[in-house]
Amino acid sequence: MSVTAAKGFTAAGIAAGIKESGNPDLALVVNTGPRRAAAGVFTSNRVKAAPVLWSEQVLKSAQVSAVVLNSGGANACTGPKGFQDTHATAEKVAEVLGRGAIEVAVCSTGLIGVLLPMDKLLPGVETAAAQLSEHGGEKAAIAIKTTDTVHKTSVVTKDGWTVGGMAKGAGMLAPGLATMLVVLTTDAVVESEVLDEALRAATRTTFDRVDSDGCMSTNDTVLLLASGAAEVTPEYEEFAEAVRAVCDDLGQQLIRDAEGASKDIKVEVVNAASEDDAVEVGRSIARNNLLKCAIHGEDPNWGRVLSAIGTTKAAFEPDRLNVAINGVWVCKNGGVGEDREKVDMRYREVHIVADLAAGSESATIWTNDLTADYVHENSAYSS
Amino acid sequence: MSVTAAKGFTAAGIAAGIKESGNPDLALVVNTGPRRAAAGVFTSNRVKAAPVLWSEQVLKSAQVSAVVLNSGGANACTGPKGFQDTHATAEKVAEVLGRGAIEVAVCSTGLIGVLLPMDKLLPGVETAAAQLSEHGGEKAAIAIKTTDTVHKTSVVTKDGWTVGGMAKGAGMLAPGLATMLVVLTTDAVVESEVLDEALRAATRTTFDRVDSDGCMSTNDTVLLLASGAAEVTPEYEEFAEAVRAVCDDLGQQLIRDAEGASKDIKVEVVNAASEDDAVEVGRSIARNNLLKCAIHGEDPNWGRVLSAIGTTKAAFEPDRLNVAINGVWVCKNGGVGEDREKVDMRYREVHIVADLAAGSESATIWTNDLTADYVHENSAYSS
Fold first, then answer.
1. Do A310 and B77 touch (CB under 8 A)?
2. Pairing with B360, which of A126, A167, B29, B174 sits 20 to 30 Å away (CA)?
3. What SS3 state is found at B380?
4. Which residues are involved in binding substrate (chains A, B) (predicted)?
5. Are residues B109 and B224 in the same domain?
């Protein structure tokens, strides 16, 4: 059900001809109200795509009536013309919906450095608008795919209200945010400030801790739209947890569909002196190409975990470090621990625990293995 | 000629049986004097192998009589026993040479987390000592190879004095230092303080800017030994340049032999506000897996260069960035530049220039492409 699981939203997904393949490439999500509160989180990459620069402005008013998303082109590094194209797209959506352009967020994904085919995109907006439906959520989720092999949706329904969402992302997945477009919707009655707080809290421990390949995109966008159509105002904690649950589920779906991956690796850092230390160590482990190759080869090469920990500034003593791989403590006190032959790595999920023995904080980062398929997928053609 | 190109040095390389393959695995380099000044630079990884911890102590006296190096085992993450083994190795060398153990540096390379077979290593020291020769430099260079496909040596001869050296390193190559063992020798008359200054200046712009796979080792060591046998005291600038030239040559040899690589990539950052900015940007580009895959596929995907630059804190304006690949300015002012079809990427060396348009400083980082062969080599077995 995706973005239309919550009441007060319609959506559509169509093939506008942006992709040469003829696959769906344009999605429209419309908040039919009565409220139009919204919050957004964007890439921390300083090279931001035109749609990110535009949508950041849109979110300043904290009111979003519609989101238009295209795959088949990122509209990044496209200069003033690229920004004009984003603006024209928002104007077109505003025109067909009878709203103001400043209430229309725009998201794009695909190859960097190529202008969008506006002669196809703008007519596509009209076609999509004509197909808007309370059942259009899945089609919208399909239309934003790039190298994704599956479309990603998630829904949490509570007592009279719902949070739902869709996501795309498969490569260039790294924090701040992971490379992706995400639109979340809710029919709960929630003010923009509260949406913002819940969204930032959720992304900090979900999407921001998904790090498939350490590469940060120019287009990452996560939007949360609230229609108020359920006429229910939930408690903050319950609402925030629902948003977090949907984000977590979508983040897991991103990792499971990461380009070329054969393993999903949960890197859990425990007993850190601070949460920041835990995140720094987790990220260092998650980005270690040699370790990611070893995991691909089902080799519990804990020395590569220790060498990754050693590059951080986190508080720890080398001779107190412990590492478990799939439940076997292969490294104890910085040296050889249990027999590495005991480690069973046949399954897709691999669980690494790094015990810093320096405090009581923890954090979990999700990553993938490094495979020949990843190399192939990212070298065989531009993406 | 390697480490025995300079007068006052003997060396040997033998197969002690540490490697199961039976290949050479033990090298000995001896400074026969009359002077024994020395300097060393070690990994900045906080998880340091036992031989690094030992050799750091040795270098405090700034006197080194001999260096014993083994491949076939890193003696890292091996606890107190590992340190005892390093100590025993130094004692053995001291005994056979009639010197003090505190003048014997130890270097190890190979798999982390495995104790060395001391029953083979210690007799090997005696065998190596018996074969010490002024022509032994090449054999020593061969004995320190791990996944290296070729041994690496370099020599610069000036007016009456020489700087020579050997290096190993193929994987886990990243700065501070790149994963490697390097022993440099000179017969010039140079005090330890001057050796130290020249060595740090040289490594800062050579080995520290070699970043094949972003993975930093536990065992990196670069040693510079001076025998004074040439009885010539060179000018500092000339000596420092000779040391830099040998380091640069060896660093280039490391990159050209990096595991699984098919391209050597020179990332040159120009017009940066500071040298630190240039290095930060260069490293970010050099570590971007997606870009490294694209280069492997001979795809001048400059969008991935810009997305890597955007993750840094360096001073720049996104719409003033320029990027050239093999001489073609494919990105101008943050957008589309010259036709990417003009870029010829058929050859092994690829030259990326990132122009930050923010100042006048520059730096060059060398890296490699990311290939299926790299994945294979680092997943098929423990290394």
1. no
2. B174
3. coil
4. 146, 168, 179, 259, 378, 383
5. yes
In this structure, chain B runs to a length of 383
pLDDT at A176 over 50: no
Of B224, B256, B288, the residue at which a domain comes to its end is B256
- Do B237 and B277 lie in a common domain? no
- Contact between residue B43 and residue B216 where contact means Cβ atoms under 8 Å apart: yes
- Smallest CA-to-CA distance from A54 within A12, A84, A95, A22 is with A84
pLDDT in tens, B93-141: 999 999 999 999 999 988 888 899 999 999 999 999 999 999 999 999 9
Question: Residues A261-277: what's their mean pLDDT?
Answer: 94
**Cβ separation B294–A48 shorter than 8 A:** no
Chain A residues touching B314 at Cβ < 8 A: none
Q: What is the pLDDT of residues A129-141, one digit of tens each?
A: 999 999 999 999 9
Using a pLDDT cut of 70, give the percent of chain A over it: 95
Instruction: Tell me the chain B residues in contact with residue A299 when contact means C-beta distances shorter than 8 Å.
Output: 379, 381-382
Q: Indicate whether A202 and A277 sit together in one domain.
A: no
Q: How many separate helices (H) and strands (E) can be counted in chain B?
A: 10, 15
Q: Are residues A133 and A84 in the same domain?
A: yes
Q: Which residues does chain A have within 8 Å of residue B172's beta carbon, measured at their own beta carbons? A: 290, 307
Is A310–B218 a contact, with Cβ atoms under 8 angstroms apart? yes
Nearest C-alpha of chain B: how many angstroms from A147? 14
Q: In this structure, are A233 and A288 located in the same domain?
A: no
Q: Give the pLDDT confidence score for residue A170 in this predicted structure.
A: 63
Residue A274 sits in which domain range? 264-379
Cα–Cα dist B321/B330, whole Å: 11
3-state secondary structure A344-376: CCCCCEEEEEEECCCCCEEEEEEEECCCHHHHH
Say yes or no: A207 and A59 in one domain. yes
pLDDT over 70 (residue A173): no
Residues of A tagged active-site: 179
Q: Which pLDDT belongs to residue A288?
A: 87
In degrees, rounded to 5, the angle at the alpha carbon of residue B109 between the alpha carbons of residues B105 and B114 is 110
Identify the H or E element spanning B42. Answer: strand B37-42
Whether residues B84 and B180 fall in one domain: yes
How many whole angstroms separate alpha carbon A235 and alpha carbon A196? 15
Under an 8 A CB cutoff, do B218 and A304 touch? Answer: no
Distance CA A27, CA B137 (A): 67
Pairwise CA distance, residues B62 & B40, whole Å: 9
Sheet containing B349-355: give its strands across: B335-336, B328-332, B322-325, B349-355, B264-272, B361-368
Provide the CATH number for the domain around residue A345.
Answer: 3.10.20.340
Position A216 pLDDT exceeds 60: yes
Question: For residues A88 and A93, what is the distance between their CA atoms, to the nearest angstrom?
Answer: 9
Regions of chain B short of the pLDDT cut 70: 170-179, 215, 380-383
